[in-house]
Amino acid sequence: MGQFSISDLEQLSGIKAHTIRMWEQRYGILQPVRTSTNIRTYCDEDLRRLLNVATLCARGHRISRIAQLAPEELSQAVISCCDDVQDYCQQVNSLLAAMLEMDERRLCYLLNTAIKELGFEEAIMRVAYPFLQRIGVMWQAGSVNPAQEHLVTNLLRQKMMVAIDALPPVAPSEARRWVLFLPEGEMHELALLFMNYVLRARKQHVLYLGQNLPTAELKSVCETYRPHALCTVMTALPERDRVQNFVEQVHSLCPEVMLYLYGPLAQQVGLRLPANTVRVRLMTDFLALAGRLCTCCEAAPAA
């Protein structure tokens, strides 16, 4: 069970702390407990209720009426309310509430609606990424269990695979060629899958090697496939003190190929980048890069 401060609830729900405190005192929306030093702490159920309350308030419901709803009525009201695809914060709150309740049907509905109305890339950038960032905060607080995290990750992976599969094929001889892979032992795949989609949607050819690739395999891959670029995401691995060695090893195996690095471990201070190596700080930077390469390829087809 997670324990949250009121500032945690503010960050996770988007509702100001003074508003939460007022709702608590006036309407009994939440039931915090106090520590021995008289500090309020909130549990998972408080967070679930606040997320649902925030969703209904964003749809124009009066807090005085919401406060009268039983837990089942509150959840049903959230499910039945019309989703505004432009209200990204409300959509993220709805996704978080559905995740906490392990409501797969609701999660699928919310993700499918966002993708249908916004388009795949916009839905990922404006809804799914903020959703995952909130989950990260909750994970640190101990309020997300592995089952909930796996539920969300696998649903998003499924949506990405479907979107990738729907793209028209591109001949490698007619496009810029990429190899996408995760370092040995690395299993966090969502960012790499999205990059796969982004490149393919811009008519780049991608050799997607996925999770847990032994680094030594890159030499034969590059000799056979002759890529223009490699791209990898470092989230949990290599170990922080081995990142420099990993980057240098990849460069030594494929010295003539551009290498793009993304993920938390790629951003560490003091990392020395070999020639032909670029650190991508934000996913929006990668989108811009892919867009520029697409324009260049249209102007001058790849050899």
TrEMBL record:
Gene3D superfamilies for this protein: 1.10.1660.10, Cobalamin-binding domain (3.40.50.280), Methionine synthase domain (1.10.1240.10)
The name this protein goes by in its record: MerR family transcriptional regulator
Stored SUPFAM superfamilies: Cobalamin (vitamin B12)-binding domain, Putative DNA-binding domain
InterPro entries named among the record's database cross-references: Cbl-bd_cap (IPR003759), Cobalamin-bd_sf (IPR036724), DNA-bd_dom_put_sf (IPR009061), MerR-type_HTH_dom (IPR000551), MerR_fam (IPR047057), Meth_synthase_dom (IPR036594)
Pfam families according to UniProt: B12-binding_2, MerR_1
Keyword presence, Cell membrane: no
Keyword Transcription part of the UniProt annotation: yes
UniProt keyword annotations, A-Z: DNA-binding, Repressor, Transcription, Transcription regulation
Domain HTH merR-type positions: 1-72
Species assigned in the record: Hymenobacter guriensis
